UniProtKB/TrEMBL annotation:
This is Glutamate dehydrogenase. The active site is at K114. Keywords: NAD, Nucleotide-binding, Oxidoreductase. The record marks D154 as: Important for catalysis. The keyword Protein biosynthesis does not apply. The keyword Protease does not apply.
């Protein structure tokens, strides 16, 4: 904490991981002797840079850019870019740190990183977003590459931003290479990448439910957010027979007892880039409520926080439990606060933690890298099948790890342990670097 003052989210993420690694460190003294934990919490490299650009009024704007290359023990750095006004080093470091374990869990050879900027794409014209992305890449290009570091999207960075970023990268490097993932299908993107985090979340949740004699069929599901992860999680829930009754954005949430109409949500959020409150214009029986936290007051069977970090606190967790919710799957990164997680685990709620549950996106990004290297594209069904297998395997591995280290049923610990061991062994083998 002294070394990294004010980086609250980073402290929270490290504390959770280190606590659950205690049983592993007690058994594997060699990790302690090699200083694995001390090295793991220190990024290999962090880059902070100026991003100047000119807005539509001709005024110069200056944002701050970040790339934290956290750990490359098992592969090139990999992790998304977040454009949101709340971005500062503490958020990028928490995300980069978690990414190490998540990437390890996917079973693909990728290290952990994260980046982004305090730039807010909301309300900006396409021209402004393009000029910002070009300026951002004008610095970032020297740090990334298909064998070095391969960024992707995250909050505020979707297909449009990745397109602009890739265009500038290609122009500067004079090379058409897989240095970013989440690209458009016409220039090296992978089928299923757009859907991967949301679908992957549901594949893992379905596996967890199956393990406990349940399924999504006939359940009522509340999903926070209405971005990339939330929309495709909702799509898969509906395909598997669940009913999504609420979704949100950063202004408020909608409740539709008849089941949310996803085509309307996609039109509002993906096409028109408007607010979710517009939904009630075309669905007058639905309700809109200002503010996001009330979404967890809605009685449901399954809750899927898919918006942002620390969006579901202890109080919200208690309400969910009281109202009969029996399973929670984290689509966003670190959406549940530590007291919320404690409440879920102490009350027998089936809880799928983010590192495992939302790993589908980066897993398919790794497959996009493979396809780019081979100059080949797999079909939708081929990639979807691989995604499903990866998520089923992740569930099995984290469940087994929890059992092996004496915390059966605690998938938070299971995910941290299973993700950690592979990275720790690689670090051990590579000496003190
Ligand atoms: P998007 O930008 O597509 O959507 C984010 C959604 O969350 C929007 O509905 C947004 O509302 C809402 N939101 C964002 N910030 C806040 C906030 N501070 N308070 C309340 N609501 C907020 O992002 P993604 O769907 O890509 O990402 C969502 C989460 O999933 C993040 O935690 C991300 O790190 C994680 N994730 C994403 C992956 C991916 O493949 N995209 C992979 C793994 C994890 P509004 O529209 O008002 O901005």
């Amino acid at each position: 904490i002294k070394k990294n003052p004010g980086e609250f989210e980073f402290h929270q993420a490290v504390k959770e991981v280190l606590e659950s690694l205690e049983p592993v460190i007690n058994v594997h003294k060699e990790y302690k002797e090699a200083g694995i934990l001390e090295r793991l919490v220190e990024p290999e490299r962090q880059i902070i840079f100026r991003v100047p650009w000119v807005d539509d009024q001709g005024k110069v704007q200056v944002n701050r850019g970040y790339r934290v290359e956290f750990n490359s023990a098992i592969g090139p750095y990999k992790g998304g870019l977040r454009f949101h006004p709340s971005v500062y080093i503490g958020i990028i470091k928490f995300l980069g740190f978690e990414q190490i374990f998540k990437n390890s869990l996917t079973g693909t050879p990728i290290g952990g990183a994260k980046g982004g900027s305090d730039f807010d794409p909301k309300g900006k014209s396409d021209g402004e977003v393009m000029r910002f992305c070009q300026s951002f890449m004008t610095e970032l290009f020297r740090h990334i590459g298909p064998n070095t570091d391969v960024p992707a999207g995250d909050i505020g960075v979707g297909a449009r931003e990745i397109g602009y970023l890739y265009g500038q990268y290609k122009r500067i490097k004079n090379a058409f290479e897989g240095s970013l993932t989440g690209k458009g299908l016409s220039f090296g993107g992978s089928l299923v990448r757009k859907e991967a985090t949301g679908y992957g979340l549901i594949y893992l949740v379905e596996e967890m439910l199956k393990d406990h004699g349940r399924s999504l069929e006939g359940t009522k599901v509340v999903i926070s957010g209405s971005g990339n992860v939330a929309i495709y999680a909702a799509e898969k829930v509906q395909k598997l027979g669940g009913k999504v009754i609420a979704m949100s954005d950063s202004n408020g949430y909608i409740y539709d007892a008849e089941g949310v109409n996803l085509d309307s949500i996609k039109q509002i959020k993906e096409v028109e880039r408007k607010r979710i409150r517009e939904y009630i214009e075309s669905h007058p029986k639905a309700e809109y409520h200002e503010g996001c936290s009330g979404i967890w007051d809605i009685p449901c069977d399954i809750a899927l926080p898919c918006a942002t970090q620390n969006e579901l606190n202890g109080e919200a967790a208690k309400k969910l439990i009281k109202n009969g919710c029996f399973a929670v799957g984290e689509g966003a990164n670190m959406p549940s606060t530590p007291d919320a997680i404690e409440a879920f685990l102490n009350n027998g709620i089936l809880f799928a933690p983010a590192k495992a549950a939302n790993a589908g996106g980066v897993a398919i990004s790794a497959l996009e890298m493979s396809q780019n290297s081979m100059r080949y594209s797999w079909t939708f069904d081929e990639v979807d099948e691989k995604l499903k297998n990866i998520m089923v395997n992740i569930y099995k591995n984290i469940n087994d790890a929890a059992k092996e280290y004496g915390c059966e049923g605690n998938l938070v610990a299971g995910a941290n342990i299973a993700g950690f061991i592979k990275v720790a062994d690689a670090m051990l083998a590579q000496g003190i670097v």
